[in-house]
Design a protein that fits this description.
The protein contains 18 helices and 17 strands. The protein is an alpha+beta fold. Helix 4 (74-106) runs antiparallel to helix 5 (119-146) and helix 12 packs antiparallel against helix 13 (484-514). The longest helix is centred in the middle third of the chain and has 87 residues, at 391-477. The radius of gyration is 57 Å and the shape is rod-shaped. The two termini are 102 Å apart. The structure holds adenosine-5'-diphosphate. The site of adenosine-5'-diphosphate has 22 residues, from helix 15 and helix 17.
Length: 701
């Protein structure tokens, strides 16, 4: 604000000084004005008209020379005409023309447009022109007369030319001097002011000879020459302006192209929508000169525009939502097309109505942000100047909008993905908790089941023992007294009772194993005797089935330390299956041998027992499952009804409890071989944790 006040006071002072000086000079040099009119006669009006036309042309056609300075050659006109019209007339015409053209610029009329961000400063600057041009013209004209220069200059002599040239120089110097204070007020550094003055002055110095020739030509040839020269000057200025403007534009295009590439890079690195929108704004500002900027995203669910970023004069405005309606942004969303308006009049002409604003802008440009034929929003820029945006800006903003659309969509996808990941994590967490609870419930249920089975088995066994015992006594006692049919009934009771007892025992064992309460009692014994004992018991059953059992034991099989009772159970199970599934006349072979630690699959000194039959065999796909509780093969059930499906499950459990391993090889229709690997010394291996799994299946034999 302090800088603004300085600028205002400098221009005010300079304008006032110029105005006072001009009024005073006009008052005291009335004679000069009348003299000029007298001596030029009717040509006076022609010369004045040419001067005005020439000065206006030069003042209007300002051109950008560097990024900072706008050059106007208007002083050339003043330098050419002060020797003809004198200081008073020249100063007034100069000031009126420069003020007039500046007002046109402020009103956005003509080729040069002045942005009116701060109207008071702009008007004071305009008033300051009394000083900017009034004082230099008066200074130059006064010196000219002081040096003996004639007004109007009617003699084209070398001294007259020299005087005009010298005073032209003075006019330039005084102008620079006056502008120095203004430049300081703007906060320019000394070096920068010197640079601007040098560029400015050297351009004017180049035009001094032209100004001298124009002034002198009236004396030599008449007003026709003045018209011709002024016209040539105007054309030259026009060409120079176009060249300068074209050069500036092409530099701008290049810069925009570079910015565009940069924008792509910058915005693709932003992950949150907020950051991304801000980055788009920052990049846009570098290439498009605008006072208002907004990004509105289209919410197709609610048919609304959400202004996610709204910036006016560098102030971020609060976010707003608006239903899709008649506004300019809505037009862009509905038509999938950019919209460029040069002024509020254009807006009315098109029958459009922008959303009412506190400070209305003149120019409006909005482009749709499109991804795959879908409008996701609008980027719009506005300016208080009329016709501030060109078709180049439309291209540029469209290119930015396309990149922005992709980046915004990516940011949204990223956000969605984050949300989904979070939801998924929650679900997993919930499910894990549910599973944990279920597991606890199952464990509790399992414990109750095992307890129930143990109780039930115990309760059932007591009466069963009576049934089996008494039926056995009755069978013996009634052999001769009961009729044969009754006797058979008794035998059936006895067999069924035994079967039931076996089943109960098996269930009891399994529930003990599951509950982890099955313990082995290892003792040293001779395997030959154990196998022989099992064989003896099985022989009767085998004879009934017309199957023969053979057993061989290698001489090097040592004594073992295992749970003999469980081993017998294992062998009974395997043998009874082998017999059960063998055809009449089949042979069941038991083979027992020693396997040293180095060759054993259980990596300790091992006894290996094979039980081989020539029975129905087991299909490959069922080999794994026969060790499951209650599982029976289709073929097995059909061939020999009965059985419980518990024998092999128990067998496997006993083998594993021994840290051993059971394998099966089989081929349907040809037979099966079950192979046991058991440690020679269970006590030794039980010190190390059991190796799982203790089961291997293989097909065929
Ligand atoms: P069970 O013999 O009481 O049915 P097991 O658990 O001992 O129960 O056996 C499970 C199933 O495995 C048997 O029903 C049978 O289908 C199959 N099986 C077991 N041993 C043999 C064998 N030696 N030959 C053919 N199938 C067999």
């Amino acid at each position: 604000m302090a800088a603004r006040q300085r600028v205002i006071s400098v221009f005010l002072a300079q304008g006032l000084a110029g105005l006072m000086l001009m009024l005073w000079l006009t008052w005291i040099r009335q004679d000069q004005v009348t003299d000029v009119f007298q001596r030029l006669g009717p040509n006076a009006w022609i010369v004045i008209a040419v001067f005005i036309a020439f000065a206006i042309t030069l003042a209007l056609l300002k051109f950008g020379l560097t990024d900072k300075i706008y050059v106007s050659l208007v002083m050339t006109a003043f330098m050419a005409f002060f020797p003809l019209l004198g200081g008073v007339l020249t100063a007034w015409i100069a000031v009126v023309v420069s003020i007039g053209t500046r007002i046109l610029g402020m009103r956005q009329i003509g080729p040069t447009k002045i942005s009116v961000d701060d109207p008071i400063t702009e008007w004071v600057r305009t008033f300051g022109l009394f000083g900017t041009y009034g004082i230099p013209v008066i200074a130059a004209a006064t010196l000219y007369e002081y040096l003996g220069g004639e007004v109007p200059a009617l003699h084209a002599t070398p001294p007259a030319a020299a005087r005009i040239a010298l005073c032209g120089l003075v006019m330039i110097a005084v102008n620079n001097l006056i502008m120095f204070r203004a430049a300081r007020a703007y906060g320019y550094s000394l070096a920068k002011i010197v640079k601007i003055d040098l560029v400015d002055s050297s351009i004017y110095v180049l035009t001094i000879p032209y100004a001298v020739v124009t002034a002198m030509s009236y004396a030599a040839i008449g007003w026709g020459a003045v018209v011709a020269l002024a016209f040539t000057g105007g054309v030259a200025n026009f060409i120079a302006r176009n060249l300068a403007v074209t050069r500036t534009r092409s530099r701008q295009q290049l810069q925009r192209l570079a910015s565009l590439t940069q924008i792509g890079k910058t915005i693709s690195l932003r992950f949150t929508t907020e950051e991304l929108l801000m980055a788009i704004y920052t990049e846009c500002r570098k290439v498009i000169d605008c006072s208002l900027f907004s990004i509105a995203l289209y919410d197709d669910h609610r048919d609304e525009l959400a202004f996610e970023l709204d910036i006016r004069d560098e102030q971020v405005l609060p976010k707003e939502r608006m239903p899709l309606g008649e506004g300019l942004n809505s037009w862009v969303v509905k038509h999938h097309q950019p919209l460029l308006l040069g002024s509020t009049a254009d807006e009315r002409k098109l029958g459009l109505r922008s959303v009412p604003d506190t400070k209305a802008s003149e120019s409006w440009l909005g482009v749709p942000m499109m991804t795959r034929d879908r409008v996701i929003g609008v980027i719009s820029v506005e300016s208080y100047r009329k016709h501030a945006f060109t078709s180049d800006d439309v291209f540029l903003l469209t290119a930015i909008a396309n990149q922005a659309a992709v980046a915004i969509e990516n940011a949204q996808l990223y956000k969605d993905l984050e949300g989904l990941t979070y939801a998924l994590e929650q679900r997993v967490l919930e499910r894990t908790n549910e599973l944990r609870e279920t597991n606890l419930r199952l464990l509790a249920a399992d414990r109750s089941k095992n307890q129930f089975l143990a109780n039930m088995s115990h309760e059932l066994r007591t009466p069963l023992n009576s049934i089996i015992g008494f039926s056995s006594v009755l069978i013996e006692a009634s052999r001769s007294t009961f009729p044969a049919r009754m006797h058979k009934f008794l035998e059936n009771i006895h067999t069924a009772g035994n079967h039931l007892l076996e089943l109960i025992n098996d269930i009891l064992d399994l529930s003990k194993i599951e509950a982890g309460r099955m313990e082995l009692r290892a003792d040293v014994f001779d395997l030959r005797e154990t196998i022989a004992a099992v064989e003896r018991v099985m022989r009767g059953f085998a004879a009934e089935a017309k199957v023969q059992i053979f057993s061989t034991t290698d001489p090097n099989v040592p004594e073992v330390r295992l749970d003999e009772g469980r081993l017998k159970q294992i062998l009974f199970n395997l043998l009874s299956n082998a017999v059960k599934f063998s055809p009449h006349g089949g042979i069941v072979a038991i083979n027992c041998r020693f396997v040293p630690k180095s060759d054993s699959p259980i990596a300790v000194d091992t006894v290996r027992i094979d039980v081989a039959d020539q029975g129905i065999g087991i299909p490959a796909e069922e080999m794994q499952r026969i060790f499951d509780e209650f599982y029976q093969t289709e073929e097995g059930r059909r061939a020999r009804g009965g059985g419980t499906g518990l024998g092999l499950s128990l067998t496997r459990n006993f083998v594993e409890l021994h840290h051993g391993r059971i394998e099966v090889k089989s081929k349907p229709g040809e037979g099966s071989t079950f192979t046991l690997y058991l440690p020679v010394d269970f006590d030794e291996v039980s010190k190390t944790p059991p190796r799982a799994p203790g089961l291997a299946v293989q097909a065929p034999v």
